[in-house]
Each structure stands twice: as C-alpha cells, then as structure tokens.
Design brief:
This protein has 280 residues and is α/β, with parallel strands linked by helices. 49% of the residues lie in helices and 10% in strands. The chain has 13 helices and 5 strands. It has a 5-stranded parallel β-sheet, with helices on both faces. Helix 11 packs antiparallel against helix 12. The chain is globular, with a radius of gyration of 21 Å.
Length: 280
C-alpha cells in the first residue's frame, strides 16, 4: 500500500509529473505557438481544482526552457533531462514558482510577488526565456498584491512568460484578465477517467463509478479520494443513512457525524460525500 501511495503522490505533484490526461488540443495549440515563435507574455489556465492545470503549466514550462526541445506530438520532457530535474527541484535559474504553500496560511503575499519584479529584467542564464508559474491566483487576496502582479505583467520583457493558475476565473480581476490569454481546462470526461482507472490498477472496479461521481472530472480529487483512508467506506455508510432519510433518528445523526470525527477526512470532503449521496 505504501508503494501505491508514493506513486499516487508523485502523480498529484505537478513538479514531478511527466504524464498528462485529456488535454491534447491545448497541447497541440501550444506546440504550434512555440514552433511559430508566437508565445504570449501571459496565460491564465482556469478550470476546476485538480483537473490538471498546474501539471500542464509545469509541462509547458519545461518545454519552453528546454533549448534542445523536439517538436513531435507532445510537450514532453523526459525525467532524465536536466531541465526537468532543475525545474522539479526549483533550481532552474530561469524558472520561478510563486505559490501559497508557506506552511501557515495558503496565501501569496505582496512581498513574494515583488520577487518577480527583481528577477524578470535579469538576463536569462540557460534559456532564451524566463518562465513564472503562479499557483494559484486564488491565493492572492489583497489588492496590494494584485497591483504588484499587474505591474509585473505590464513591465516584464517579452521573453518572460507568465503561467497563472486560476480555479475560479470569476475571482480574477478584469485588469489581470485583460493582460492574459485565457485557456479553459474542462473537466476530464468519464470515458478517459475510466481508462486511467483501468490502467492505474489503484482501485477496485466496484468503486470506479463512486470515485467518478465524487471527483467530478478532477483527477486530483480522484487521487485524493483514493489516498484518504476509509473514504469509500464512509461514502457507502453515509449512503445507507441517506436512503432512510425519512426515518432518520438521533442515533443515525450521531453515527453520521462520528464517521467524520473518527476518520482522516476533512469537512469539505465529508460534505461532498453527503451532497453526492443526496443527489443519487
């Protein structure tokens, strides 16, 4: 089990993931853009959380920074490639990752964004480009931070490429949107999901439909469900209680919330389970 969880963890983390599911059209579009040297200064990748936006951003960043790239059918960079290794370890001199994983609150501060301004005008060292990933703009909560990002977008040179992750495009200020090309990442359809499940061998076939329904087209959410102890068991138990909702008593209600209290599941996922079972 430990070996499976380790493999799944590597799939979840976009820095180490060399695989991509379900975005062939977007990949081909960027291949043509790069081949024709028509990269825009900034892109917003938007769609539901966990669908693969950051995975694609890292995949694209590695390809852009690799001066020995091969224009085949994919934006693929081998894990043995030095660019892959230096980007995944965050040691590439022409790559910057701005995220909210500061160990306290998941926010991107103004000071953190200011590091972009001090770096973008420096001469690139190993590549023709500099690439900056912001994951995610949803974690920028202060107007001062938004203004700092806006100034960076306005002032950065053409060889500086911003790849901005957004889980909700409606929360992105119009001033930021107007300076970026927006790329929508739609939820992965069930057929592709099922193919991944069959190939992965990480789940029992009997649980496939449940995980499909709970994940709503998000591979990240599906893997989170697989990695969470007792998730499917709790989902089944909640389903049994929901079935007799008209006859529910205090003991059933207590049992329901004890399942949340006694297991490694957060409130967001517990409510997701209840919503899923009610909607069946």
């Amino acid at each position: 089990m430990k070996e499976i969880k380790s493999t799944l963890s590597n799939i979840v983390d976009p820095r180490f993931n060399d695989e991509l599911y379900g975005f062939d059209k977007i990949e081909k579009m960027f291949l043509n853009v790069i081949r024709n040297k028509k990269l825009s200064n900034a892109y917003i990748f938007y769609g539901i959380k966990g669908v693969g936006k950051a995975t694609f951003a890292f995949r694209l960043a590695r390809f852009i920074l690799n001066d020995d790239k091969k224009f085949e059918n994919k934006l693929f960079t081998s894990k043995d490639n030095k660019v892959f290794k230096s980007v995944s370890s965050l040691n590439h001199p022409d790559f910057i990752l701005i995220d909210g994983n500061n160990g306290v609150t998941k926010t991107i501060s103004t000071d953190l964004l200011k590091t972009i301004q001090s770096s973008t005008y420096k001469t690139s060292i190993e590549s023709k480009y500099k690439v900056i990933i912001i994951d995610s703009i949803d974690d920028i909560t202060k107007s001062s931070s938004t203004n700092t990002l806006l100034k960076s977008l306005e002032d950065s040179p053409k060889n500086c490429i911003f790849l901005i992750i957004a889980h909700s495009i409606f929360k992105v200020p119009k001033t930021i949107q107007s300076r970026c090309q927006k790329i929508y990442f739609n939820p992965i359809n069930n057929e592709k999901f099922k193919n991944w499940f069959m190939q992965s061998k990480f789940i029992d076939d009997k649980n496939a439909d449940t995980i499909l329904g709970l994940s709503n087209g998000s591979l990240g959410k599906a893997i989170e469900i697989i990695n969470t102890r007792n998730f499917i068991y709790i989902c089944d138990q909640v389903g049994e209680i929901i079935k007799k909702i008209e006859e529910i008593n205090n003991d059933d209600i207590e049992k329901l919330f004890l399942m949340y209290a006694d297991n490694e599941i957060n409130i967001e996922n517990f409510l997701l389970i209840i919503q899923f079972q009610i909607s069946k």
